[in-house]
């Protein structure tokens, strides 16, 4: 009797959260998937069922493939810097910097993440300015005039410039989170490996990386999800240009929904983003579970 009462009480306590999750997350997702099979305009309330036509249209749309490849590139570069480089920075901070100085470096690492994405995007727009930007001015000062470029105005460099800005902002933040995971590893493991003759690099790959796997997995899922949800950076810096070279799925959804008033096609693109992020998350969790380290 008491067990049933406790269960009922627990259900009542969690009910508000469940209602919020269903109303704010689950219901909009279901509605978005349903709408992706229709054509609909805010000026014409009637929805017309068209089946998979929106998805067929996406497959045939070269801008969609450009946006998807840009998101994939964003995810790959972000994994390299925000996980790989961040883990190396965290390991260096833990192994080579005295504890009394680590607070200063943590603040330096964390500082870019305190800036809003909009402010950072505007800042880097000025940095990349072809005439008065710091980047071209620095190249000119170093005698590398041949490397000066219209960074955001050239389709071959615009997306890379946007991606580089994001790495500057978030690599240090992830390094701090990874440092927390590293400092939870018992020091005895490093001491024992040192007695066995293991150097710092070997310790990094045999102790630090395996025993930080949980944090690495969580951050990897977050990084990849954010890479497929990127929007503000591109909107502020290039707005998808030049010539659609920096379109990502987020900007493409926005432009089709609120500029072209093509809600059905925008919903189909949103469903693609949902499927990609969910599949990647599941794969990462499965792979991480298979490689769990016991100690």
From TrEMBL:
Bilayer topology annotation: Multi-pass membrane protein
InterPro entries with a match to the protein in the record: ABC_transporter_permease, MetI-like, MetI-like_sf
Transmembrane found in the keyword field: yes
Gene3D superfamilies registered for this protein in UniProt: MetI-like
Gene Ontology cellular-component terms listed: plasma membrane
Superkingdom of the organism of origin: Bacteria
Protein name: Sugar ABC transporter permease
């Amino acid at each position: 009797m008491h067990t049933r009462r406790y269960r009922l009480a627990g259900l009542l306590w969690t009910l508000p959260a469940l209602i919020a999750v269903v109303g704010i997350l689950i219901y909009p997702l279901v509605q978005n998937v349903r709408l992706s099979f229709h054509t609909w305009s805010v000026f014409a309330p009637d929805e017309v069922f068209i089946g998979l036509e929106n998805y067929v249209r996406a497959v045939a749309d070269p801008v969609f493939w450009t946006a998807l490849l840009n998101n994939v590139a964003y995810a790959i570069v972000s994994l390299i810097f925000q996980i790989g480089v961040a883990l190396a920075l965290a390991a260096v901070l833990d192994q080579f910097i005295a504890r009394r100085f680590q607070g200063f470096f943590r603040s330096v690492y964390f500082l870019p993440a305190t800036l809003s994405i909009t402010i950072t995007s505007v800042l880097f727009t000025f940095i990349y300015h072809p005439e008065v930007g710091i980047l071209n001015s620095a190249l000119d000062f170093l005698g590398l005039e041949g490397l000066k470029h219209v960074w955001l105005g050239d389709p071959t460099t615009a997306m890379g410039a946007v991606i580089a800005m994001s790495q500057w902002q978030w690599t240090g933040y992830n390094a701090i989170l990874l440092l927390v995971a590293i400092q939870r590893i018992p020091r005895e493991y490093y001491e024992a490996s040192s007695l066995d003759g293991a150097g710092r690099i070997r310790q990094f790959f045999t102790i630090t990386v395996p025993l930080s796997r949980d944090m690495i997995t969580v951050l990897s899922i977050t990084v990849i999800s954010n890479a497929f949800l990127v929007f503000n950076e591109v909107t502020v810096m290039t707005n998808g240009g030049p010539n659609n070279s920096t379109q990502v799925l987020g900007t493409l959804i926005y432009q089709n929904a609120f500029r072209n008033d093509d809600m059905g096609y925008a919903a189909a693109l949103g469903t693609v983003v949902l499927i990609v992020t969910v599949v990647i998350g599941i794969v990462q969790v499965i792979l991480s579970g298979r490689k769990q380290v016991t100690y």
